[in-house]
Amino acid sequence: MSSPTIVRTVAEMREHVRAWKAAGQRVALVPTMGALHEGHLSLIKIAQQSADRVVATIFVNPKQFAPHEDFDAYPRGEAIDVEKLASVGCDLLFAPNGAEMYAPGFATAISVSGVSEPLEGAARPQFFGGVATVVAKLFIQSQADVAVFGEKDYQQLQVVKRMARDLDIPIEIIGAPTARAEDGLALSSRNAYLSAEERAAAVALPAALKAAVAEVAAGGRIDEAEQTATAALKAAGFGQVDYVEVREASDLSRLGPGPIEGAEGRILVAAWLGKTRLIDNMAVA
After folding, report:
1. Over the chain, what is the mean pLDDT?
2. Do residues 186 and 180 make contact, with C-beta atoms less than 8 angstroms apart?
């Protein structure tokens, strides 16, 4: 397949989108930070099922990283990313620089309260403000009809949905199932940080979640399932466990400590394996 057209400015992207829409075509957006893997490509494929044209974006957003986090070390490789986008027939790549996204004097931030506050919001207080701001810009810049986000970043998906709903941004948001390796580990750009030994140990993360889901689904107490999962991660070699919690699926309010009692739940985890922080989640019926 041919390589996607690469544009660096909002004006160039809008020119392409306007032409497509004038021809009656539906446009989908897949925002990424690059270092693309099969999980990202699965989002492109889902977007193609919902639209005639697909725009992928690559921008490592400085506003969602704290000073001590891995912004400078975050994996980058546009040439390889372009090859991967070409392999699935992505139409357009928007790859702006920092000045294009945040012009000198940029002074606006979007804060989504409620759903952004627990879990990742507590562990990384700056994170969702940066995500909401850049995603709102991408929605407005692209004028896309639909956007696709992976459920692997489940809380992020709920924050983006709330933000778009509250700001009346006319875009359909699709949550795509988490792409996983054969052993169950959720695909992530940060998996590249893992040593061979750590990668082998990482399979304990989805295994612990799966066991907790089964325990809760069978009528077990939520607090006991969370404690068992945390202990399993520690036993497998994980260090700090930021959270293992069962939350209500849409607003991420706390469930438990007893049985789930018919609620639609989601168990979410963030834990450190060496210097790498891994996150994952699974549905709880």
Report:
1. 97
2. yes
Instruction: Quick: pLDDT tens for 60-89.
Output: 999 999 999 999 989 899 999 999 999 999
- Residues 6 or more apart whose CB falls under 8 angstroms from that of 11 comprise none
Q: How many residues belong to the chain?
A: 285
Average pLDDT score over residue span 99-110: 97
DSSP track, 67-101: TTSSTTTS---HHHHHHHHHHTT--EEE---HHHH
The SS3 assignment for 217 reads: helix
| CA 232 and chain centroid, separation | 25
> So what's the pLDDT on residue 2?
85
Dihedral angle of Cα 13, 135, 84, 172, to the nearest 10 degrees: -90
Measured distance CA(131)–CA(166) in Å, rounded: 15
**Annotated catalytic, 16?**
no
- d(Cα 233, Cα 7) in Å, to the nearest integer? 43
Q: What is the DSSP string of 3-46?
A: PPEEE-SHHHHHHHHHHHHHTT--EEEEEE-S---HHHHHHHHH
CA dist 109 and 136 (Å) reads 10
**How far apart, in whole angstroms, are the C-alpha atoms of residue 22 and residue 235?**
58
Active-site hit among 16, 37, 40, 68: 40
Cα–chain center distance at 256 = 26
Q: What is the DSSP letter of 195?
A: -
User: Contact, 176 vs 266, CB < 8 A?
Assistant: no
